[in-house]
């Protein structure tokens, strides 16, 4: 073995040992918890049924960690714009990791808030982030009730239904 | 007067010729609960067979009623399930029919339309002879297996499809 090769091997071994001691196994990968389609469907349908019981027909979107659709439900009894709106509310809640009503307040204070110009942001209440501790794993958006506050109540009911699993 | 009589006569003739409300078409359409039951049953049926699948249920006009991304599915499965459903709805037939048509004639006209896909796994949702929507399933190892789950979804609500 040449001197150089020996040195490289030594450095590699030393680095491997150092990393191995400093970090836990698989430190180069992130460990995520994500929604199952079953949990997402329960969240969405609980929200729709909660609003229905209150006399409101709503559409729902549950988005995942990357804003991707996990479940999208159009309620044919609700206005057709509700489907798109529920997605945008959920997107807003997911990416800001906060209720979309908070972004609505921000835009009221500053109508030119930069995020307002991004695709899929909507300044409307009715969506909530889905959290596991401090980690935002998705969001639910509701649209169709006469008022974003009423949409949000149903969104919350959906999350509450599976809260025991969100850990 | 002659002109008025002519118009009145025309109106009367029209009235006699058609049935009540002949100027509107009566439709039955999927409710949100029925559509979700169809989709969820398909997901669960495939899951029980060891396959994770994504599902779309489309309505009469091809609009998305329900989209479900299955656990650990490939990212294309959600799109593919939509296209299989679209193909079924458009042709009022299982999407495998279109797959077979394309095998016979690879340049068949409909292959150039948006959202048409020659793949098995989509079925129309019928009320009698009326296609009121469609379901598309993607993710199982073979369109035949997708179609079994699609069928299970429709069968679950068969009693309501009338």
Key traits:
A: alpha+beta; Beta-Lactamase; four-stranded antiparallel β-sheet; 5 helices; 15% strand; globular; B: 162 residues; alpha+beta
Question: Mind explaining what this structure looks like?
Answer:
The complex is a heterodimer of chains A (167) and B (162). Chain A is α+β, with helices and mostly antiparallel strands. Helices cover 46% and strands 15% of the residues of chain A. Chain A folds into 2 domains: 1-31, no CATH class; 37-165, Beta-Lactamase, CATH 3.30.450. Chain A has 5 helices and 4 strands, in the order H-H-E-E-H-H-E-E-H. In chain A, strands 2-1-4-3 form a 4-stranded antiparallel beta sheet. The radius of gyration of chain A is 22 Å and the shape is globular. Mean pLDDT of chain A is 89; it is low at 13-20. With 162 residues, chain B is of the alpha+beta class. Chain B has a single domain (28-160), classed as Beta-Lactamase, CATH 3.30.450.150. Chain B is 45% helix and 15% strand. Chain B has helices at 2-17, 32-48, 76-91, 95-104, 143-156; strands at residues 54-58, 64-68, 122-127, 130-138. Chain B has a 4-stranded antiparallel beta sheet. In chain B, helix 2 (32-48) packs across helix 5 (143-156). Residues 7-18 of chain B have low confidence and may be disordered.
Helical content class of chain A: 40-55%
Label the CATH architecture of chain B: 2-Layer Sandwich
Would you state the CATH class of chain B?
Alpha Beta
Instruction: Report the largest inter-chain contact.
Output: A-B, 20 and 20 residues
What is the CATH C level class of the largest domain in chain A, in words?
Answer: Alpha Beta
First CA to last CA of chain B: what distance?
Answer: 50 Å
Q: How many distinct folded domains of chain A?
A: 2
Q: Radius of gyration of chain A, rounded?
A: 22 Å
Q: Can you summarize the main beta sheet of chain B?
A: 4 strands, antiparallel
In CATH, the homologous superfamily of chain B goes by the name Haem-degrading domain
Q: Count of DSSP helices of chain B? A: 5
Structural class of chain A: alpha+beta
- Choose one word for the global shape of chain B: globular
What letter string, H or E per element, gives the SSE order of chain A? HHEEHHEEH
Question: What composes the largest sheet of chain A?
Answer: 4 strands, antiparallel
User: What's the end-to-end separation of chain A, in Å?
Assistant: 52 Å
């Amino acid at each position: 073995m040449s001197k150089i090769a020996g040195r490289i091997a030594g450095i590699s071994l030393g680095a491997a040992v150092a990393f191995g001691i400093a970090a836990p196994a698989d430190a180069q990968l992130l460990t995520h918890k994500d929604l199952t389609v079953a949990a997402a469907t329960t969240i969405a349908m609980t929200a729709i049924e909660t609003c229905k019981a209150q006399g409101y027909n709503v559409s729902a979107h549950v988005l995942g960690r990357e804003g991707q659709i996990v479940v999208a439900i159009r309620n044919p009894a609700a206005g057709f714009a509700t489907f798109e709106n529920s997605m945008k509310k959920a997107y807003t809640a997911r990416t800001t990791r906060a209720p979309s009503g908070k972004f609505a307040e921000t835009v009221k204070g500053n109508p030119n808030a930069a995020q307002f110009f991004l695709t899929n942001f909507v300044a409307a209440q009715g969506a909530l982030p889905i959290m596991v501790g401090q980690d935002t794993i998705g969001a639910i958006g509701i649209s169709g009730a006469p008022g974003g506050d009423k949409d949000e109540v149903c969104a919350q009911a959906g999350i509450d239904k599976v809260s025991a699993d969100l850990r | 007067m002659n002109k008025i009589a002519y118009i009145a006569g025309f109106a009367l003739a029209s009235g006699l010729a058609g049935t009540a409300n002949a100027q509107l078409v009566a439709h039955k359409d999927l409710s949100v609960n029925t559509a979700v039951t169809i989709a969820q049953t398909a997901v669960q049926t495939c899951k029980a067979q060891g396959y994770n699948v994504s599902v779309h249920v489309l309505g009469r006009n091809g609009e998305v009623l329900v989209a479900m991304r299955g656990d650990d599915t490939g990212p294309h499965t959600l799109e593919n399930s939509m296209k299989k459903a679209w193909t079924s709805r458009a042709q009022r037939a299982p999407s495998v029919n279109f797959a077979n048509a394309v095998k016979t004639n690879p340049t068949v006209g409909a292959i150039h339309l948006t959202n048409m896909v020659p793949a098995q796994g989509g079925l129309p949702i019928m009320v009698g002879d009326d296609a009121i929507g469609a379901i598309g399933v993607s993710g199982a190892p073979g369109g035949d297996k997708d179609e079994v789950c699609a069928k299970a979804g429709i069968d679950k609500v068969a009693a309501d499809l009338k």
